[in-house]
Amino acid sequence: MRSVSLPLLQKLMPFALLLCLGCAAAAQAAPHRMVVSSGDCRDAELSGQSKAFYDALRARPDQRLLGAAEFGARLFPASSRSFEDLQRQLDAAQDQFYEGRNARASQLLDDALRDIGRLPPGESRWKLYVRAQLLHGLNHRGLGKTKDSDAAFLKVLRLQPKYQLDPDQFAPSLRQAFEKLRRDQARAPKVKLSVKSTLPSSDVYLEGLSVGQTPVLLELPAGAYELSVVKGDAVSFPRQVQVQGADTPLLVDLAYEGSVTAAPFPCLSIVDGSEERTLSHAVRLGGTLGVEEVIVVRLERPSSGPKWFAATVLNVEGGQKLREGGFKTQGLDAPSEALSALVDFVTTGRSPSNLVVMNNANGRAPWDAGGGRGASASGTGSDLTAPNRLSEETEVSTTAGPPRTGLRVASYVALGAGVAALGGAGVVRLMAQKDLDGLEARRAANDGRLVSTDAEAVALRGALVKKSGLMTGLLVGGGAAVVTGAVLFLVSSPAKAPPVTLGVVADGTGAAAAVSGSF
């Protein structure tokens, strides 16, 4: 193994410190955010103004914002082709198979199956899926891949054990092999999959095939299945379920997942008017997508007075409402100046314009003055607004940024420098090992003694002394820097910890709970 020379190590130390400084700066970058609207997701005015707000926020420099397209792709990956397009691709794959171009047929089938899995569940999708798997079975047989062929046939039989091959398309020998697979699978052990939903009597689909309504208990061969749960317009996030062991229970919170839509703009549908439930769903959505803050935008239409476009900023880790503001609006388009002022408020907690209104003297937002949205919490969702920091945020909105930011940056720098120094000490120790091994070899050659006339032994001992001094300095300096950084970090930490929140949903067939916060 090649060793690293001391001069090279000394040259690398400044770069390590610069890297740590860069990490500290990155830690202070803008939080990763997403924007989601709430209300009637089919409302063109809500979608249009939400999109305008999102565009204004995205146009700001140094914003880490989850894109609307990425939102849809991650939660509801959609097929880029229609049923008819995929049917034509399967026809093309079948022609390639009959012409002996098995590799091309396999490529077309794999490509089609990826998009078939993104189609809405139902009979049409299942028929495409079955045809693609049966063609795969035929094509693999043509390539001499019997195991792959059997696996493709079994993906049909595991959900439709009574499926019959068309004798006009499949040779007798292939139908015999198919029947043997059917008998073998019937004798194989099964795993119980029980599916419940927070919305009772929801339709359950596996690979697009309807298999019953919740609560449903299925006995299936072990393996991976694509599962969706649907009730009316509520559709769950598609998921891969590993059915294994003696029993696989699954509870789908369709009340939450079904409230999320991706088009025409990321949206949470409000059906019961519960603000607490909506904000709870927004926090869960932020956790699912891995962002730090969720900005919930909405149109407030009080029974009397003007209409408002409002935004609430939520911290995902603590489930805490950070700030809330809005401006008066009318018509389909939001005023650009007001949008810009609201973006300022959302990103900094301050706004240079009086167009954005936070809360009034009694702690309520102006759209709540009539006792509407925030007057009572009759829903069953968790209260994400306690402690409510809106009054506190407004009072300090003219001050500089977050308190103790300088100490926090200094703590990151000190911790980074300390870690780099300790790492350098480890490198020096590895370099010294070679000299130590050489010195032991010289000692052994001189009957266990170090002879002053042995020039090589003297040189090795001198090098070891220098490396020992350097390693000691790095250890002492690195330890001191780590301790200093830890102390500065504790001193700069906020006095209040985020609250612990609990969300519970239940019905006659099942229950689900979510806990978030710091423990």
TrEMBL record:
Q: State whether keyword Signal applies.
A: yes
Annotated signal sequence is 1-29
Annotated region Disordered: the residues are 367-402
Q: Which InterPro entries match?
A: PEGA
Give the superkingdom in one word: Bacteria
Chain ranges of the PEGA domain: 192-244
Protein name (database record) = PEGA domain-containing protein
Q: Which source organism does the UniProt entry give?
A: Corallococcus sicarius
Q: Which UniProt keywords apply?
A: Membrane, Signal, Transmembrane, Transmembrane helix
Segments traversing the membrane: 409-432, 470-491
